[in-house]
Design a protein that fits this description.
Blueprint lengths: L2 E3 L1 H7 L14 E2 L2 H9 L1 H6 L15 H4 L4 H14 L14 H13 L2 E3 L3 H11 L3 E2 L1 H11 L6 H12 L7 H11 L8
Parallel strand pairs: 1-2, 1-3, 3-4
Helix pairs in contact: 5-6, 8-10
Length: about 190
């Protein structure tokens, strides 16, 4: 199954698995809009100056793949739902997704991808309205360790520690426990 990565997930995962987009064992993909946001947005340039080292490792799906299938129908449906005002059942607030989030959602739905994101609003919308599969970045790492494509070590542990220093989003408790069991390391990232 292809796992579609949003911007924040890429920033959390690319240093752990630099080949996540070029090696099919990782099953990862992203879209042009995310790629552009990653390298053109000032806040990412400032907070993650190291991301330039990975620019040639991040490849995005082509427009013909993304916009094929049922993409336009999915995008219109999402846009209409948001314009009519759909409430997040977990927060009681109306969903408010950016244009990029809407494209990510439409691509996820149209191609039946799993999505990795730390954006609660986007995740809740996709689960609530479309029953999509969502996975956290730590869940991805756990899956990679189970498949044997990532071998946990002290260097990777330092990257997880950096998640906490960079104020990355907390990871689900069940994935923290799974990580500790699989890696043999104590999880020191954001909880």
């Amino acid at each position: 199954m292809v796992i579609l990565c949003d911007t924040c997930s890429i920033l959390m995962l690319i240093r752990i698995a630099p080949d996540m987009f070029t090696d099919p064992r990782y099953e990862c993909a992203t879209i042009q809009e995310v790629y552009r946001e990653l390298f053109r947005t000032q806040k990412f340039k400032t907070k993650y100056p190291w991301r330039e080292r990975y620019k040639n490792k991040i490849t995005a799906l082509g427009e013909t793949i993304v916009k094929g299938s049922d993409f336009n129908l999915s995008f219109s449906l999402i846009h209409n739902l948001l314009n009519t005002g759909v409430k997040n059942k977990k927060t009681g607030h109306f969903f408010n997704l950016s244009k990029i989030d809407q494209v990510i959602a439409a691509c996820t739905i149209a191609h039946n991808y799993k999505l990795t994101t730390v954006d609660d609003d986007l995740a809740n919308f996709l689960v609530q309205e479309f029953s999509c599969d969502i996975i956290s970045p730590l869940g991805m790492i756990n899956d990679w360790m189970e498949k044997g494509v990532v071998q946990w070590n002290d260097y990777l542990q330092i990257i997880i520690e950096d998640w906490d220093k960079c104020n990355e989003h907390p990871q689900p408790g069940k994935e923290v426990k799974r990580f500790e069991k699989l890696s043999g390391y104590h999880y020191v990232g954001p909880k």
